[in-house]
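Our preliminary data section would be incomplete without showing what the modeling component actually yields. Below, a chain of 86 amino acids is followed by its predicted structure, encoded as tokens that our downstream tools consume directly.
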Amino acid sequence: MQEAESGIVRDWAARQRARRMVDALARLQRAMLGGPADPAASQELADLAMGSLDAADPALRATLGAVAVRARVELARLKVAGLRPS
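Predicted structure:
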């Protein structure tokens, strides 16, 4: 019972993190379309993308991993374009 509750809590936290990453990606996209990227938004995205992928559900863990990879790709693109410091 306790293990199941632990898995539910981990999955809930993983979903919240994925939502925050998607929101940060959307903010970054809007900033890029409307002008220079916001350093605070890119730093938030970097922090979220580099954290642990702790989810009990394997499908959720895979989805979270895919979102994190997308975030890292966008951050790398900003860096190559000179819009994000190293």
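The chain has one domain: 2-80. Residues 2-80 form one domain. Preliminary results of this kind motivate Aim 1 of the renewal.
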